[in-house]
Specification:
Layout (H helix, E strand, L loop, with lengths): L2 E10 L8 E9 L3 E6 L5 H9 L6 E6 L2 E2 L7 E4 L11 H12 L5 H14 L15 H14 L4 E5 L7 H16 L6 E5 L3 H7 L2 E6 L4 E7 L8 H6 L1 H24 L1
Parallel strand pairs: 3-8, 3-9, 6-7, 7-8
Antiparallel strand pairs: 1-2, 1-4, 4-5, 9-10
Helix pairs in contact: 2-3, 2-4, 3-4, 4-5
The structure holds adenosine-5'-triphosphate (ATP).
């Protein structure tokens, strides 16, 4: 698999502050689902914003299919924790407008039809004409996922998209995302930031762990569990527990290192 995303010696700091990220080298093949874990403040969101082209590195470079990332683009969809729907537009219009921008020249009626189709995929057919404020947090996040999928970008960057949800909705949206991803003819490359080791192991093909101060890669592990995964049997398996434990130890050692250094 060719690398869809490459980070080469990436370093970043905010203005004159200490470096947030240092010497990050990472190759992400097309179609891989990568989960990014790390302590709070280790720079996960910063790394995602660099990939999104919303910020730029001080050192090194980020590439998509060999070309430098120079700004945001429809070849990289983003889903953040705060839903980010336009409050003055209905749910369907939020998605149809995005499709229209991503596929210039598409007739309005076609954009709308595609939007309705994607809302159906996330179980929101009944909310098509509603405004974001009329929806629950889980429904808004589903709409944001529908919009990200509808853009048909080869890359999806997700920053704790389920972090604000209750456990039931969180599990539901994890399943919805994996089902949508697994059934795509050409799988998207996903970079998914989370604090939750279980979530990372349930969703990911690979788990990358960012250490703190400055953020460096401290672990890069393949997730060996076959798909389609069954939540209950996976969470009960000894392989899952062993990998979970090993990642938890890596994170704990990083926290300890930070405390000693402080
Ligand atoms: N706009 C900003 N200006 C200055 N410093 C920032 C800015 N955004 C983030 N930081 C700092 O950069 C560091 C990394 O932040 P970032 O949000 O990338 O970490 P994170 O790993 O995503 O954290 P969390 O898991 O808590 O969301 C933190 O110390 C944070 O305070």
């Amino acid at each position: 698999m060719a690398a869809e995303l490459s980070l080469e010696g990436v370093g970043f700091s905010y203005e004159d502050a200490a470096p947030i990220l240092e010497k990050i080298d990472l190759e992400i093949p097309a179609g891989q689902f990568v989960c990014l874990l790390g302590a709070s403040g280790s720079g996960k969101s910063t790394l995602l914003r660099l990939l999104a082209g919303l910020q730029f590195p001080d050192q090194g470079r980020l590439l998509q299919n060999g070309k430098p990332i120079t700004g945001p683009g429809f070849d990289r969809g983003v889903v953040f924790q705060d839903y980010a729907l336009f409050p003055w537009m209905t749910v369907v219009d939020n998605i149809a407008i995005a499709i229209g921008k991503a596929q210039p020249g598409t007739r309005k009626a076609d954009c709308r039809a595609q939007a309705v189709d994607y809302l159906g995929k996330v179980g929101l057919e009944s909310a098509v004409g509603q405004y974001p404020f009329e929806l629950s947090g889980g429904m808004r996040q589903r709409a944001a996922i529908a919009r990200a999928l509808a853009l048909r970008s080869p890359v999806l960057l997700m920053d704790e998209p389920f972090g604000a949800l209750d456990p039931t909705n969180r599990a539901r949206l994890q399943d919805l995302l994996t089902e949508a991803w697994e059934t795509e003819a050409t799988k998207k490359t996903i970079v998914f930031v989370t604090h939750d080791i279980d979530e990372a192991l349930y969703l990911g093909d690979r788990v990358v762990v960012l250490g703190s101060t400055p953020g460096r890669l401290i672990a890069d592990l393949p997730v060996p569990f076959a798909r389609h995964r069954d939540r209950r049997s996976l969470f009960d398996s000894s392989g899952f527990h062993a990998l979970r434990e090993s990642i938890a130890e890596t994170l704990a050692a990083d926290t300890l290192r930070q405390l000693v250094a402080a």
